[in-house]
Design a protein that fits this description.
heterodimer, A: mainly alpha, two-stranded antiparallel sheet, 14 helices, B: mainly alpha, ABC transporter involved in vitamin B12 uptake, BtuC, 4 strands, globular
């Protein structure tokens, strides 16, 4: 572990600008020598990184245990799919609607449960996620296609170019991902971002300092849910087939693990987590049956050995170790 | 007697049967929550392992030609109870004890992790398809009364067994020294330690009793329905957890009442509305309770949850 920490410290001394340019170049060039399968794996990595970043706002910054995040991802995908199939809206133009609907649903669902603490919030979010999935399965409004979902969604069209090949989808994802990273990074260091972390560490103290904790927590949920909706719409454009399984609990757990494995509240951590939770299992397809066991072992082992995650945010790391030093029980 | 009343009584009987399953599993959640303030997500999967181990046990027992018939189930139940109880204690030792002082998020994630491992293990060992218990060992037949209300012998057995188990547990917790120690630990670890209670030992005992009870319930549920698959743990686990919350988590009579109530509400809901909304009804109850009365029906500790 110390060897790894040393490496990370040394890597941190490289000027940030170089890192950014290098990583961007890598992200652009990496898929070029690859076949379609690996390009799709990369696309999935981007998708889950985006979902992880969106959940990181809720779970990482504001410290709210959201275990039903996949519901908003599904809502985004269904919004895009339904608008496209029934009203013929070009797919890229459905994106704002997908974000808006997922965010509004995030607002409506979480408003009454904000007062719940920790593990109780976790349970309610699981229940909400399941309710969303069951509504889609049971075809409540008669338009969601039941258990089979929707198919035949149009491909996104960008300046007359129909995005069909995985490589186009990869670059579309990359653009949105870069926007997401920039936005999340700016949020992290904003007044709102600091308020989130204050609420995460000590809600009572935050309230005493004049932070409107309800508003701040609600904003975390609304932003995070909306962003998950965007990821869902991107998914609908790539796969053109969507099903209620998108909202299933396992998906929410994978997103949760992506954030926890890398380290809550850490942007690079989300990428480390995505590689561990999504990319590696995808590359080791023969072991697919054991993926859930792998998820489980990682969750237990991480909590015991390295609760701050593999690439933690420095703030969280300091807090966790300070806590352990002072706790006597 | 009018047909609508007959139907209602029938639904209530079915509901109480399912409710007693929920109640028995809910007891495991509520006991663990009582002593550790932890939602033991792995409990549902330990219960599911009870169903699988019961299946293996019955097949082996029938193969070695024990006197066939329903009695073969009893030694199998004892075997399952012991194995699942030990598994529960091992889970506590490996995945929860190192996290005793690590806040609230870490043990919950660890518990979810254990649940995934147990479920994946069951799916890989036993396969993803539905498993069926040998049908000739479950007693058939039943009683009909009020003209058209039917109660099967299996339902009668289920109800008797669950009430005996619940009564035994209740007496154990109220009357014995270990039970008293459990109640003390659930109030305050440090003070219990000052009173000379070995807190770790009590927690281990809780993790033996809860999963042991869950394992037996797994066998009973599988016998009652005849077939099941690896999703049993997750479905029943969540339902039982809802039952525990409904009755007031940490409260043992609450878990029993909550289980019965959930079973009845669900059965009435699927009987009078539509079976496909059954789960939605259960989740909605959970959400409403946590919003409006997080302490449940019999819960006391208000400040703890908000």
């Amino acid at each position: 572990m110390t060897a790894m920490e040393n490496t990370i410290t040394r890597l941190r001394q490289v000027p940030t600008r170089w890192w950014q340019i290098g990583l961007l170049a890598l992200a652009i060039l990496l898929p070029l020598p690859m076949g379609d399968y690996y390009r799709t794996v990369l696309w999935r990595t981007g998708l889950y990184a985006m979902l992880g970043l969106s959940l990181n706002i809720i779970l990482g910054y504001a410290g709210l245990f959201q275990l039903g995040h996949a519901a908003f991802y599904a809502v985004g995908a269904y919004t895009a799919g339904l608008l496209n199939l029934y009203l013929g809206v070009p797919l890229l133009l459905t994106f704002p609607a997908a974000v808006l609907l997922a965010a509004s649903l995030g607002f409506l669902i979480t408003r009454p449960i904000l007062h719940l603490r920790g593990d109780y919030l976790c349970i309610v979010t699981i229940a909400f996620g399941e309710v969303v999935r069951l509504i889609l399965v049971n075809n409540l409004f008669g338009i969601t296609g039941g258990a089979n979902g929707l198919s035949g969604i149009d491909r996104p069209v960008l300046f007359g170019l129909v995005l069909r090949e995985p490589i186009y989808h990869y670059y579309l994802m990359l653009i949105f991902l870069i926007v997401t990273i920039v936005a999340v990074h700016r949020l992290e260091n904003s007044r709102l971002g600091r308020a989130w972390m204050y609420v995460r560490e000590d809600e009572v103290a935050a309230e005493a300092m004049g932070i409107d904790t309800t508003r701040v927590k609600l904003l975390a949920f609304v932003l995070g849910s909306g962003w998950a909706g965007l990821a869902g719409a991107l998914y609908a454009g790539k796969l053109t087939v969507i099903a209620p399984d998108m909202a299933k609990f396992l998906e929410s757990v994978i997103m949760f693990c992506v954030v926890v494995l890398g380290g809550v509240g850490s942007i690079p951590g989300v990428f480390v987590g995505t590689i561990g939770m999504v990319t590696l299992p995808e590359l080791f397809r023969p072991l697919k049956d054991w993926r859930d066991a792998w998820l489980g072992i990682v969750m237990v082992a991480m909590m015991i050995l390295r609760p701050e995650g593999l690439w933690p945010s420095r703030r969280v790391q300091m807090e966790i170790h300070a806590e352990q030093a002072t706790s006597t029980d | 007697m009018p047909a609508s009343i007959q139907q209602l009584i029938q639904q209530l009987i079915n509901g109480v049967t399912i409710g007693s399953f929920y109640a028995l599993v809910a007891l495991g959640y509520t006991m663990v929550y009582g002593v550790l303030k932890l939602i033991n997500f792995a409990h549902g999967d330990l219960f599911m392992w009870g169903a699988y181990l019961g299946l293996s046990g019955i097949i082996v027992a029938l193969a070695v030609a024990l006197p066939a018939g329903a009695w073969v189930v009893l030694p199998v139940m004892v075997f399952v109870m012991v194995i699942v109880a030990l598994a529960g204690a091992v889970v506590e030792r490996v995945a929860y004890r190192p996290l005793r002082s690590a806040g609230r998020l870490a043990p919950v994630i660890s518990a979810l992790g254990v649940a995934f491992v147990l479920e994946s293990l069951a799916r890989n060992v036993y396969g993803a398809s539905y498993k069926t218990y040998p049908t000739d060992i479950t007693p058939t037949g039943g009683f009909t009364f009020f003209g058209n209300v039917h109660i099967s012998i299996m339902q009668v057995i289920v109800l008797i067994v669950s009430f005996v188990l619940m009564a035994a547990l209740y007496l154990f917790i109220q009357r014995t020294r270990i039970g008293t120690a459990m109640r003390a630990v659930s109030l305050d670890h440090d003070t219990s330690r000052l009173m000379g209670i070995d807190v770790d030992r009590i927690i281990t005992i809780v993790f033996l009793i809860g999963p042991g009870l869950g394992g037996v319930t797994g066998v009973i549920v599988a016998l009652y329905y005849g077939s099941f698959d690896f999703t049993l743990g997750w479905i029943y686990g969540l339902k039982a957890f809802i039952a525990a919350i409904l009755g007031g988590i940490g409260n043992i009579p609450g878990a029993m009442i909550g289980g019965m109530l959930l079973g009845v509400i669900e059965t009435l809901g699927s009987g009078y509305m539509s079976p496909q909304w059954k789960d939605v009804i259960a989740y909605t109850i959970l959400i409403l309770i946590l919003i409006f009365r997080p302490t449940g029906l019999l819960g006391e500790r208000v400040a703890e949850k908000l």
